[in-house]
Specification:
By secondary structure, the chain is of the alpha/beta class. It is built from nine helices and eight strands. The chain has a single domain, classed as TIM Barrel.
Length: about 240
């Protein structure tokens, strides 16, 4: 992809974020744009950085481990894909935040790895709001029962919740799932007695609806970098 095409894509997304925020009565500065860089080479990530993007999301620890060092040094990296417990040490080392914590066991392993690394690890708890068998994430009821246990772990910081909505040609059809995640965040805040910063929800096909329902971070891949070979599963 040419630099000018990438720049145009990013500008169009930022404009649409502003429109969605205006519709919802929100300040556009309250929504972060994450570039999902799965499958993108360091050269493309560098181009995206030159267009002003600083936040990147990777799906796999091994891919990120191989290419982060070849990318510009001042970028911020989050893990957004499923994390296996045997990859926690590398995930804690290479990422600033892990958005895909989906079980107590995984949280415990991340906590151990962060302890050994001498750091506190910001995390998001991933929720499978729609109950799709093909996706990872907490069942809402289990999230509520385990939330305080995870919050008590000394080397973790829960910054909020994340979800991947069901794929649909009609973004309005997934609005209820975004609304449900916002309601779950409010339940967690009541348990915590404090606010949570992030609602990571919304991808290339539905991010405007997600913003209207309170998203603070949208994860965009296809709309920035172009379609991959299986666009129905792209983010």
């Amino acid at each position: 992809m040419r630099h000018m095409d990438l720049q145009a894509n990013i500008a169009a997304i930022q404009d649409r974020i502003c429109v969605a925020c205006e519709k919802a009565g929100r300040d556009p500065i309250s929504v972060k744009l994450m570039a999902v860089s799965k499958g993108q080479p360091p050269q493309m990530i560098e181009k995206a950085a030159e267009c002003g993007l600083t936040l990147f999301g990777e799906n796999k620890v091994q891919e990120a481990k191989a290419k982060i060092g070849m990318c510009p040094g001042k970028l911020h990296w989050h893990l957004i894909g499923h994390l296996q417990t045997n990859k926690c040490r590398d995930a804690v080392h290479f990422f600033e935040q892990i958005q895909s914590v989906d079980s107590l066991r995984l949280a415990e392993e991340i906590n151990r790895s962060a302890d050994k690394a001498g750091k506190r690890m910001p995390i998001l708890l991933e929720v499978n709001v729609a109950g799709e068998s093909t996706k990872f994430g907490y069942e809402p009821e289990i999230l509520i029962t385990e939330f305080l246990q995870i919050n008590a772990m000394s080397h973790l910081e829960i910054h909020g919740l994340m979800t991947i909505a069901p794929w649909s040609l009609e973004p309005e059809k997934v609005r209820p799932f975004f609304r449900r995640l916002r309601e779950l965040k409010e339940q967690c805040e009541q348990l915590l007695g404090a606010s949570l910063m992030e609602l990571s929800m919304g991808m290339s096909g539905d991010y405007e609806v997600a913003i209207e329902e309170g998203s603070t971070l949208v994860r965009i891949g296809t709309a920035i970098f172009g379609a991959r070979s299986t666009p129905q599963k792209s983010v």
